[in-house]
Amino acid sequence: MQPESAMTPGLDVTVLVSVGRHPLTGRVRRADQDARGVELARSLANAEVRLLHAGERNESSDAALRGYLGMGFSELALLEQPEGADVLPALAEALDATSPHLVITGERAERGEGSGLLPYLLAERLGWPLVSSLAAVESVENGVATLLQALPRGQRRRLSVRLPAIVTVDDAAPAPRQSAYGPARRGTLEASMGPVSNDEEWAKWQVQPARPRPKRLKIVKATSARDRFKAAAAKSDGGGGQVLTDVTPTQGAEAILTLLREENVLQ
Amino acid sequence: MSDLPRRDPRLEWIARNRLHPRHEEVLVALGQGAASEWPGPNGLVRKNPHRVGFIGPHGVKRIDRSGTQQGAMGGKASTPVADRKPLIEIAEPAFLVAVVPDMAGGRLSGHDKDLLGLARRLADADPAAQGAVVAVIFGPHKETRFGEAGIDRLLHLDSPEVTGYAPEARLGALVMAEQAWAPRHWLLPDSKLGGGELGRRLAARLDERPATGIWQLEADAEAATGWQCTARGAAGSLDIRRPLPRIALALAECAEPVSETRHTAAELALPQPLPSTLSRIQDLGQVSVDPASVALSEAEFILSAGNGVKDWQGFHHAAELLGATEGASRVAVDDGFMARDRQVGATGTWVTARVYVAVGISGAIQHLQGIQTCDKVVAINMDPGCDMIKRADLAVIGDSTQILEALVTLVTQAREEKRDAA
Ligand SMILES: Cc1cc2nc3c(=O)[nH]c(=O)nc-3n(C[C@H](O)[C@H](O)[C@H](O)COP(=O)(O)OP(=O)(O)OC[C@H]3O[C@@H](n4cnc5c(N)ncnc54)[C@H](O)[C@@H]3O)c2cc1C
């Protein structure tokens, strides 16, 4: 251990975990993004990590939750809820009681509505800042965390956030380690009852397995048959681009550089 | 001289009279050239079949029956297509539909345009009480065609607080817009960052339950808002049909983009200046990542090499200096100059770059397929007739080695000047 990290008081981290669903077989499993969140928490130096789940309890969900225990935990706190309940009040109360420094959640659940709203609602309710699509935690000092946020196209952005905060992780976070069978069996699920609030709207909606979305047709809005034919038979779009012939290499390079600058791709 | 068209009845009469000795001359003078069709003296349309068509590039007579050729001979300046679309002004909207486009790269993305199409469907559903589409955009932009995308009112916020990653300040601005105008609908793109995040924050703040992942919308008189939507749930494995709530986050291709009308895109301003809030999240700027480590399919800026690259050392150097991810055509890969995972095209990777620079690539269809979704394509090639030039937005004809060298020199110069200035 390095001396500095030993000096700083331990970081209290809670990871919210849920029961996932395999995209092909539909079997329950540990949710992928949540497992990434657990992995991220494990990689933090000097952190005390707790796992928290709220939901219905049955045999298959227990098996899925034990998958998280197999990542090196001896216990998981479980707030029992009836089927189809809104887990927000229970989670908010539990987090209020334990008041961790950092809460890590997945971006979206793999079952149920999966709207990805829960972290935002929790943040609003607790009054904490929220950072989405986290890739790494760089450092935590004096109650301020420096984070790396994953942007589209493999880019990263550095942010600093005042703790306590909620962060969500998506597929850009480090891949989770495998779940070990022994620790998964030995770990305990500490069940308790939380406040229950029913989700009445969900019950009214019509839910069915996803249909494939229709492919968008290339609709050509032209007045004459000839234009429509030309559009349908066109080789590729474009055309009308600028072509520079008979220029010196420097002039050509200048034109390219101007375009690159306009598009903001040069660092 | 005024540009009012003046009519000369005598000349028109001669133009109608095919047998008049000055007929041909007058036709040319009136700008009708050798007209093949004209109204005769008794109102009958007269045709001269010998005059139909034009002589093609190989000396063969070609007949174009679309009528464009004839129109072009008319000599009148044709108005550009954009202006011909009817302009729709909604002075007194019955309600407002607020849209917050992502504006990735400072322009309306395809997703944004689809969303605006959806907003127009909501706004124009009842012709008697038409709504107006308000777009809220943050930070500097490069877009010039807001009206053609279907925007009636534009709220452009450009203060330093809301530029960069400032979700809390942007949320504050949206809440002010909500208080000022109370739009009937809020539509945001359900994209990774930007709309997806801001929409959820807005919903949490306004305490509304939003619909996320919407991909279909149907009118339904029984629903509270008059619409029923279908949304994806549970990681894309469920379809949820529910009444459309006030705040909706829609997927790409949720509706057809606006294509037939123009709108005013009039500037709008918030009634009060933005409150200065203390942000708990601070943006420390983008981190430079090694472009070589970015997956080709994700890369934003690709410098791609083909058979026309002769100086490979120079190519790698240019890619490194420009901060571009390297790509290659199949020939460059087969010849062993580039790794297999760098191949772009039908049998390689389908790239999504915003800027794609093709160096010495001829543009075979297998290659062009792979760059279909690229925004700006730049071609450097010796052959001005090749297919890549037709696809490119900017093409420079010349030797790839020299042009890359010149580019490297220019960039190095610019960087040194900047360093000296700093
Ligand atoms: C089944 C199948 C699948 C294929 N899949 C792919 C694929 O996925 N991706 C792919 O890329 N190809 C693919 N191909 C190959 C494709 O058809 C072409 O052969 C290939 O893309 C051509 O590569 P190129 O443009 O680099 O080479 P060329 O066609 O040889 O073009 C070289 C270009 O460089 C120019 N040039 C030459 N010297 C210079 C110079 N000094 N400076 C500037 N310009 C110069 C020339 O004018 C020419 O335009 C596939 C082919 C088949 C049959």
TrEMBL record, chain A:
GO terms for molecular function: electron transfer activity. Belongs to the ETF beta-subunit/FixA family. Residues 19-200 form the Electron transfer flavoprotein alpha/beta-subunit N-terminal domain. Keywords: Electron transport, Transport. PANTHER family: ELECTRON TRANSFER FLAVOPROTEIN BETA-SUBUNIT (PTHR21294), ELECTRON TRANSFER FLAVOPROTEIN SUBUNIT BETA (PTHR21294:SF8). This is Electron transfer flavoprotein beta subunit. InterPro entries: ETF_a/b_N, ETF_b, Rossmann-like_a/b/a_fold.
UniProtKB/TrEMBL annotation, chain B:
Gene3D superfamilies: HUPs, TPP-binding domain. Residues 97-287 form the Electron transfer flavoprotein alpha/beta-subunit N-terminal domain. SUPFAM superfamilies: Adenine nucleotide alpha hydrolases-like, DHS-like NAD/FAD-binding domain. Keywords: Electron transport, Transport. One of its GO terms (molecular function) is electron transfer activity. Belongs to the ETF alpha-subunit/FixB family. This is Electron transfer flavoprotein alpha subunit apoprotein.
